Amino acid sequence: MELFEKLTKNAAANKQRIVLPEGLEPRTLTAADRIIAEDLAHIILIGNPDDIKAMASELKLTHLEGATIVDPRDEAVIDRYAPLFYELRKSKGITMEEARLTTANPLYLGCLMVKAGDADGQVAGAMNTTGNVLRAAFQVIKTMPGISVVSGAFIMLLPKGSKFGTNDTMIFADCAVVPNPTAPELAQIAVAAARTARDIAGIEPRVALLSFSTKGSAKSEAVDKVIEATTIAHELAPGLILDGELQADAAIVPSVAQSKAPNSSLSGRANVLVFPNLEVGNIAYKLVQRLGGVQAVGPVLQGLAAPVNDLSRGCFPEDIYKTIIITCNQAIGLKNNK
Predict the structure, then answer these.
(1) What strand order describes the sheet that includes 169-173?
(2) Which of 172, 209, 197, 196 is nearest to 303 (CA)?
(3) Do 118 and 185 fall within a single domain?
(4) Structural domains of the chain, count
C-alpha cells in the first residue's frame, strides 16, 4: 500500500479538525472541498461567511457547506479567544486591546482554536509568508515538552524496491527551517524526526546524525557538534535507535558500516538522516530528489505542541490536500503518544 493511501485511510478512520485560516484562498477552498467530499477531516474555514460562499459558488465547489466557518470579525469569537492570547502573552507586555486585535488575525485565530482544543491542527501559507505562519504558531501553540526548536523534515519516497530506508521511505531533516543548529537543537531535530518517521511514514526510526567524519575519522568543531548532539539525543530519547557521528555511506550501506563503524547500532540501515545544518540538508534533499528520481514530500513542520504546517505560496490544490492529510496524521500521532 502506498504511503498516501495509508495516511488517507488513517485520516478517514480518525477524523481530525483542521483549521484553514486562508478561507478565501481559491486553492485552499478547492482542497477543502475535496477533503470534505472524501470525508477525511472536519474542516474549519476562517473568513467572512458570505464571501466564502460566494467564492465557493464561483469555483463551483459543492461540498463546502460541510465546513464550519468562523468569522474573525465576530465579537463573540474575539470574546472567546482573546483572553487566551492575553494570558499567553501578558508577560511580554501585551494589553487586552492588543490581544483582541491580534485574535482577529486569521493565522492567530486558527492557532488559538488549536490551543483551546477546538481544532487539532492548522494548515496555512498559500497566501502568507512562512515567517508569519510560524510566528503565530510559536506565540500561541509553542513547542512540545523537551523541544525548543521547530524544524522541517522531508519524507523521501524512494523508487520501489530500493535497498535503502524502510519500505522505500526515508526521512531527511532539517532541510527547511534552522540554518545552523546548535548541538542541543540538532539533538532535538533528531528526536522530532524520529517522531515524524513513526507518525507519518509509519516506520520504526533508525536515526543517523551525519557528518564528514565517522567515529573520529576527522577532527573539527563541526564534528564535535554532531558528537555532542548524539550524546544529548540519547539522553532525550534513551530507547531510540540512533547513532552519530557518521558519514552518509556508513549510515546507509551495511558493508561500509561494517568497515567504518562496526559497533554502530544502525549497522548501515538508517532510515532517518539528520544533517548538521540547513545548507547541507537542503542541498542533499534536492540532489536526491532530482538525480535519484525520489519524491520529496514536505516540508513537514515538527517540534510544535500541535501540528501547524506551512505551504508554499506557489502550491497547487493537490499540495494543500496532501498537507491536510499529513497534518491529520500528525495530530493522530500526538494523541496516541500522550
Answers:
(1) 241-246, 206-210, 272-274, 169-173, 151-157, 295-302
(2) 196
(3) no
(4) 2
Residue 122, SS3 per DSSP: strand
For residue 1, pLDDT over 70 is answered with: no
Q: For 269-327, give the DSSP string.
A: --SEEE-SSHHHHHHHHHHHHHHTT-EEEEEEEESBSS-EEEPPTT--HHHHHHHHHHH
Measured distance CA(79)–CA(290) in Å, rounded: 50
pLDDT by residue (tens digit) across 256-297? 999 999 999 999 999 999 999 999 999 999 999 889 888 888
DSSP of 171-208: EEESSSS-SS--HHHHHHHHHHHHHHIIIII----EEE
Cβ contact 34:317 at 8 Å: yes
Q: Look up the CATH number of the domain holding residue 72.
A: 3.40.50.10950
Whole-number Cα distances in Å, 250 to 68, 141, 208, 298: 50, 38, 9, 26
Same domain membership, residue 329 and residue 252? no
Predicted TM-score (pTM) of this structure: 0.86
